[in-house]
């Protein structure tokens, strides 16, 4: 895909959007999970505080003890990550869990309201961060003093839980990426399908299979379709005007040419045969030029090639019947090899002009025979016309079909026959080549499109 590809732009936009969306979603989910775990930890620590307060006992002499140790075994394991501590007003670390070992929590000196719980993030054993929940308790005894109860949990547990959640989430994010990419593929394919349909429609117009684009495209594409159809209509109108103008001009020249031929005849009758011959040759050349322009105007006039259809065998037979009655054609042996009922996508008059010029050229130069061979496949039909004449020099073969080219000035003609052949072949998307024939003369090969089968 090129950098100007619409498909590539859509893919890049989709990939960037998916990447941003998944990054934001992953960050948001991890943050939500972290807040959820923090709330669970907060609830657990508050529960531990309540159990610690419930087990608190103050003797008559003011000494503080616990009626029972908290049940969580991590409190008894040194540096386990879960700690408790009781501070008095005069003695920090009055009581603390075995898990604190030889350290104690340095609680900040902040005022605590009765029953209130404060949350802190402090440095614990080994300077590791711990989440702390603390509250103040005042027992109703004669020697009662306020006590600060604190429970702490190593923050690494929260970090580990978040990392585990992120790791567990990765396969699901990958699955979401795959699903979104498949959805993007389907969306791009569906979204660009109308443009592909327009491309096929334009290709059908260019190949002559359809005159215009259909009207069943989505609303967003219809303005483009309407403009293309309007352009085709304007082009067809311009071509038709040019064709009519060319035809009018050519037909307008025929009357002066006829008058010129009559003048030549009168000159011959008056005893000027040389001048009459020159005028007749000039009139004939001009008439051939006019005929050629008429043919070019017809084949270039935007013919509905999807409707063009003609049977090759009947056209060849029709031309041979005429040529065999001419002085050049009656002396030749004509050999035709072709399958039955082969149709090409040409207008009948265009095929007759094309074959007529090829066969006339072969008859003009052949010594004794002309061979016509027709072969076909599913898409193309090849016509080969060869003669046993003197042939053409290899250096001149590429020039055949040029306008006005005459390789032998002693033969009558205007040099337009093979040029007309090339014009017609080019107009229908075919090809024409010239090479030396096995019999020594010229072999002309013409490739033409096969007419599509008619729908039953």
Outline the structure in words.
By secondary structure, the chain is an alpha+beta fold. It folds into three domains: 1-205, no CATH class; 224-299, Helix Hairpins, CATH 1.10.287; 308-449, Heat Shock Protein 90 (2-Layer Sandwich), CATH 3.30.565. 48% of the residues lie in helices and 17% in strands. It contains eight helices and 14 strands. Strands 4-3-7-6-5 form a five-stranded antiparallel β-sheet. Strands 9-11-12-14-13 form a five-stranded mixed β-sheet, covered by helices on one side. Strand 3 (82-88) and strand 4 (95-96) form a beta hairpin. Helix 5 packs across helix 7 (348-365) and helix 7 runs antiparallel to helix 8. The longest helix has 51 residues, at 156-206. The chain starts with 5 loop residues before the first helix and ends in a 7-residue tail after the last strand. Residues 406-414 have low confidence and may be disordered.
Short structural summary:
With 456 residues, the protein is α+β, with helices and mostly antiparallel strands. The chain has helices at residues 6-54, 156-206, 222-269, 273-299, 312-323, 327-330, 348-365, 417-427; strands at 56-58, 64-66, 82-88, 95-96, 117-123, 129-137, 147-154, 310-311, 333-337, 343-344, 369-376, 380-387, 431-436, 442-449.
């Amino acid at each position: 895909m090129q950098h100007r590809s619409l498909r590539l732009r859509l893919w890049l936009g989709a990939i960037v959007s998916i990447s941003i969306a998944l990054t934001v979603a992953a960050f948001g989910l991890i943050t939500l999970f972290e807040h959820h775990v923090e709330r669970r930890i907060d609830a657990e620590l508050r529960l531990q505080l309540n159990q610690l307060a419930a087990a608190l006992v103050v003797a008559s002499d003011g000494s503080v003890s616990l009626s029972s140790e908290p049940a969580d075994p991590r409190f008894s394991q040194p540096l386990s990550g879960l700690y408790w501590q009781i501070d008095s007003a005069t003695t920090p670390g009055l009581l603390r869990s075995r898990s604190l070992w030889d350290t104690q929590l340095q609680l900040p000196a902040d005022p605590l309201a009765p029953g209130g719980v404060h949350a802190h993030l402090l440095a614990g054993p080994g300077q590791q961060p711990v989440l702390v929940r603390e509250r103040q308790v005042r027992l109703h005894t004669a020697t009662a003093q306020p006590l600060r109860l604190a429970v702490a949990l190593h923050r690494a547990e929260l970090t580990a839980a978040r990392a585990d959640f992120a790791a567990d989430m990765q396969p699901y994010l990958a699955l979401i990426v795959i699903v979104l990419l498949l959805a993007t593929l389907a969306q791009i394919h569906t979204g660009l399908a109308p443009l592909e349909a327009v491309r096929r429609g334009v290709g059908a117009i260019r190949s002559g299979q359809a005159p215009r684009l259909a009207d069943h495209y989505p609303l967003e594409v219809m303005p483009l379709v309407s403009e293309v159809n309007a352009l085709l209509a304007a082009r067809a109108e311009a071509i038709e005007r040019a064709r009519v103008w060319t035809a009018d001009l050519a037909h307008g020249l025929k009357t002066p040419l006829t008058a010129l031929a009559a003048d030549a005849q009168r000159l011959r009758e008056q005893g000027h045969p040389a001048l009459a011959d020159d005028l007749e040759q000039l009139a004939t050349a001009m008439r051939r030029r006019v005929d050629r322009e008429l043919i070019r105007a017809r084949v270039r006039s935007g013919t509905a090639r999807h409707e063009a259809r003609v049977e090759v065998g009947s056209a060849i037979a029709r031309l041979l019947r005429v040529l065999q009655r001419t002085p050049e054609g009656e002396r030749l042996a004509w050999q035709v090899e072709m399958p039955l009922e082969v149709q090409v996508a040409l207008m009948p008059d265009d095929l007759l002009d094309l074959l007529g010029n090829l066969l006339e050229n072969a008859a003009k130069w052949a010594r004794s025979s002309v061979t016509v061979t027709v072969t076909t496949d599913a898409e193309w039909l090849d016509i080969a016309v060869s003669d046993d004449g003197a042939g053409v020099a290899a250096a001149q073969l590429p020039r055949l079909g040029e306008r006005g080219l005459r390789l032998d000035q002693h033969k009558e003609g205007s040099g337009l026959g093979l040029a007309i052949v090339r014009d017609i072949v080019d107009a229908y998307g075919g090809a024409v080549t010239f090479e030396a024939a096995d019999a020594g003369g010229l072999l002309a090969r013409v490739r033409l499109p096969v007419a599509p089968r008619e729908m039953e």
